[in-house]
What we know:
Elements: H1 8-16, H2 20-24, H3 26-32, E1 54-56, E2 62-64, E3 69-70, E4 84-89, E5 92-96, E6 103-105, E7 108-109, H4 111-119, H5 122-128, H6 131-150, E8 158-162, H7 168-175, E9 180-185, H8 191-195, E10 200-204, H9 212-215, E11 219-225, H10 234-243, E12 245-256, H11 261-266, E13 279-280, H12 283-292, E14 296-303, H13 307-314, H14 335-340, E15 346-352
Parallel strand pairs: 8-9, 8-11, 9-10, 11-12
Antiparallel strand pairs: 1-2, 3-7, 4-5, 5-6, 6-13, 12-15, 14-15
Amino acid sequence: MKLDLSDAKQHLERVNAFDGQILFGAGVFNRETKRSGLGRPSSGFLTPEQSRVVEDTGLERYRRKDAMWEEVAACPVCGGKDQESFLERMGVRCVRCPACSHVYANPVVKQAEAIKLYGDDRTAYDIYTQPMQKETDWKKYQYGVDMIDTFDPPGRDKILDVGCGAGLFLQVAFASGWRTCVGVDANSAYDSVYREAAGIQYINGTFEATDPDAIGDNYDVVSMWNVLEHIYDPLRFLKSVGAVMKPGGLLFLMVPNVKSLATRLIRTMSPRYNWKHLHYFSPASLRRLVELAAFTFLHQETVITEIDHIKSYMSGEYPHHGFGDPEGLFASITPAFIHANLLGSRLVLIGRKPS
């Protein structure tokens, strides 16, 4: 079903329908989806995976395990050599490129080590297989399928989801009439989930290392939901993705938004800054990267407000525990305001491969 993007009210209702904090409140949503609690991303402590590359010394508190990390020589978007400090959280140091404003991690976990971590990432598995998370994700992915239809892919024959996780987006696409649905993901923890799904092809591995014959080509759409921020060379990667697409095919991206209102406010308390994320895209840097990869820019918006995190922090409380705004002091901060100003937690971008 196509979306009428000119109907702002209807559009906002669709976006809010899969926003866990609006539906359940941050305290309930974070607890039920295993985001909060000791060793969880929103706890303020290291996750088990990050503890393998960063140690809590009790002195400097967080110190990188040097053998696991490597320096980045230049901005991954524009190639600029200059950088300025942005922030540091739990051993993860982020810098900003003064030439293009892209924010990226430097140093980064060595790629060989990262592949091992992704291969048995239980933190992500535990979050994305929870019933409440799957409930909101189903609505989110249906919105994504409808958004893709809105921008007229060349057909509805083949769709590739890179970093498909538990494969829920592919299940939604298949249920919506897409004939060939292929997913690639490096996390072997999802193997049992994949075997239970019908009508979908799953490939365990990384897009870069998988045999091209196994992936195939002539895709009408390639989607990446919170994946591009993990890619070591995103420009080269997007060019490789373009090579398996039909002329006129659509690129669908969702990434964390470094310019979101929540991230701007809570900064080093945001679990967004972690070992997995090599890039912290803004609307400007994401569009620039996509256009450098020879895609035509079509559309950009934000989804997911993190509105309870925002109001909890502005109330003087820890942002992730669901305190909110009990006195109603910040009622003027609404989902409509957030998304109208591209301040949502996630950026969505749609591009097209030239015909």
